[in-house]
């Protein structure tokens, strides 16, 4: 009932608003960038296929060409379930199971798809999270709060008597089922559950009769070569906290600690140091295409990668990230994400936008704002939200090659979602919006240094835009309302109440996103009229005065009358950013879980 109710409500929310003109026809396409990793599943029935579940996402991804292109799966039932581990059937490539949970805990479900992830059905629900799923010996298993469940057909389930509570990872060696529960490891053999004499790690892998557990603790790595009859601690050059430990499909051992990553081809007698930690940071999952056992597929920081030696890597996924900002610089499209900014050539045909051999930083690398210099389009500013110590910090950086390389200009307190470069003084004046502080920033040196404009009434500036009526005039969109200044922000006058999320200006038309509405002025901001919309996250004018809007509550919206009426363009149900190509051919949307998607709006 809960799933059905949530689904009905979701459909109600997506009811289209009234429209002044029919939206362009066409199909949204996923065009990258690859910014996100995910838990992995492969199937011998289709060796080139890979499934991946981004952490805490509401859908999985599938590639049928070894990661060259990816497709989003359908949303999980109700829209609020999130996925974690997954298991693919080895005979039917379209049959997939996902361990699902509700964010915040309290309820979980086993999700089943028979159409390669396009749609899912909840086949088992339980109190607490479902932590893992496994297909082995003609049975399907699921772990959760009460223990391990088993099904012979994937639809009817039964709790295995004596299985450990708070069950987590599941693996099978022959007919034996291995289960972790907290720091304990159990083997279920002939209907009886026995605790193993080792400390379980966060990883549990099996190769033939070999069973390995380790990772997520300082309790070492333990190996059994006889399906749990005996155990030995794996010794090596690693010590202290173990980040990751696994057996590959060829039987090699891989261990990662805080100090490095090592591979052993002889069950730990000798070890080879690799660049795994230095280049990918922490390994999260490891697998292989069934017909390429010597090539590892790694879920690491900021992506999914392939390697044959753990020294050189190629990124193959996933286009599943949040894109907070978008900009077009010359012939380049730039996307600001949680793990830095990415750049590709228009019109963005490939999902991989270029990999320099090292995973991007996963912490303190969120690019919240991008701005292109109107006089020199190859010059771009970005606001990267990170930390100095424990303080939230805006790192203002400049690129002079359309986003390929960046140079740090200055760092100031706060986070940013908006940067404005003055079109009449592009070599001098720059404004940087800031939240988490009661100020925004002003520069007379093109961003080389920033001066805070501090105002007690400000509670978080989310948008900033140049007023074209004066060299010193600027619009400031704050959580507390819309403000206007005629002296570069030294003083301000409040114009509108309400939380301002975005501002777009073209000529005398000023469009401001305020709550669940846009306020539209056709006289340069002297007067405003209000029109209903979903809550918007970004606004931009395209060719011919067409207005596009991103929204966390709706697909991309389009207005051909300056913001009075809107039509939905479809695509992702939740977006953060939007930009239109200068020739009016394409609209690019920065989504909340699918990286960048594009739609042809000219000639469609």
From TrEMBL:
Biological process annotations from GO: xyloglucan metabolic process
CDD domains cross-referenced by the UniProt entry: Sialidase_non-viral (cd15482)
Alphabetically ordered keywords of this record: Signal
Gene3D superfamilies membership: YVTN repeat-like/Quinoprotein amine dehydrogenase
Residues passing through the membrane, by range: none
UniProt xrefs under InterPro entries: Sialidase_sf, WD40/YVTN_repeat-like_dom_sf, Xyloglucanase_GH74
Keyword Transmembrane helix set for record: no
Signal peptide annotation: 1-20
Protein name: BNR/Asp-box repeat-containing protein
């Amino acid at each position: 009932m809960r799933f059905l109710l949530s689904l009905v409500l979701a459909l109600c929310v997506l009811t289209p608003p009234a429209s002044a003109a029919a939206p362009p026809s066409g199909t949204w396409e996923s065009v990258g960038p690859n910014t996100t990793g995910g838990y992995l599943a492969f199937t011998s029935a289709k060796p080139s296929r890979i499934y991946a579940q981004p952490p805490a996402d509401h859908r999985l991804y599938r590639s049928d060409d070894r990661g060259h292109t990816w497709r989003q799966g359908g949303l999980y039932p109700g829209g609020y379930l999130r996925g974690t581990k997954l298991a693919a059937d080895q005979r039917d490539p379209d049959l997939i199971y996902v361990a699902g949970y509700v964010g915040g805990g309290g309820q979980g479900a086993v999700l089943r798809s028979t159409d390669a992830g396009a749609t899912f059905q909840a086949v088992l629900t339980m109190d607490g999270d479902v932590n893992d799923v496994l297909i082995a010996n003609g049975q399907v298993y699921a772990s959760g709060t009460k223990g391990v469940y088993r099904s012979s057909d994937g639809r009817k389930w039964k709790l295995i008597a004596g299985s450990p509570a708070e069950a987590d990872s599941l693996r099978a060696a022959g007919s034996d089922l291995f289960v972790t529960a907290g720091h304990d490891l159990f083997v279920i053999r002939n209907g009886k559950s026995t605790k193993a004499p080792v400390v379980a790690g966060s990883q549990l892998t099996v190769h033939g009769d070999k069973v390995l557990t380790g990772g997520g603790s300082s309790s070492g790595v333990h190996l059994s070569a006889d399906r749990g009859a005996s155990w030995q601690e794996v010794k090596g050059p690693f010590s202290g906290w173990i980040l990751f430990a696994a057996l590959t499909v060829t039987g090699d051992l891989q261990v990662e600690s805080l100090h490095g990553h090592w591979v052993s081809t002889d069950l730990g007698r000798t070890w080879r140091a690799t660049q795994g930690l230095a280049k990918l940071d922490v390994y999260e999952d490891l697998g292989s295409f069934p017909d390429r056992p010597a090539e590892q597929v790694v879920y690491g920081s900021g992506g999914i990668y392939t390697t044959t030696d753990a020294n050189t890597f190629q990124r193959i996924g996933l286009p599943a990230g949040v894109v907070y900002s978008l900009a077009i610089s010359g012939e380049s499209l730039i996307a600001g994400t949680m793990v830095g900014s990415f750049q590709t050539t228009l019109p963005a045909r490939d999902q991989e936008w270029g990999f320099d051999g090292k995973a991007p930083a996963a912490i303190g690398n969120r690019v919240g704002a991008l701005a292109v210099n109107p006089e020199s389009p190859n010059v771009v500013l970005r606001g990267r939200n990170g930390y100095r110590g424990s303080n939230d910090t805006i790192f203002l950086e400049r690129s002079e090659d359309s986003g390929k390389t960046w140079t740090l200009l200055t760092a100031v307190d706060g986070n940013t979602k908006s940067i404005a470069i003055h079109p009449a003084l592009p070599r001098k004046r720059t404004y940087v919006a800031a939240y988490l502080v009661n100020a925004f920033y002003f520069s007379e040196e093109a961003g080389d240094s920033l001066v805070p404009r501090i105002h007690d009434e400000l509670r978080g500036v989310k948008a900033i835009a140049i007023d074209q009526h004066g060299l010193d005039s600027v619009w400031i969109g704050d959580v507390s309302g819309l403000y206007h200044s005629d002296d570069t922000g030294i003083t301000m006058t409040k114009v509108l109440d309400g939380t301002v999320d975005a501002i777009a200006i073209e000529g005398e038309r000023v469009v401001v996103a305020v709550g669940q509405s846009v306020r539209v002025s056709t006289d340069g901001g002297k007067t405003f009229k209000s029109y209903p919309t979903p809550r918007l996250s970004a606004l931009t004018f395209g060719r011919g005065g067409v207005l596009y809007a991103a929204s966390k509550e709706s697909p991309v919206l389009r207005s051909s009358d300056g913001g009075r009426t809107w039509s939905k363009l479809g695509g992702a149900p939740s977006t953060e950013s939007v930009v239109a190509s200068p020739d009016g051919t394409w609209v690019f949307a920065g989504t909340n879980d699918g990286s960048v998607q594009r739609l042809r709006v000219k000639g469609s």
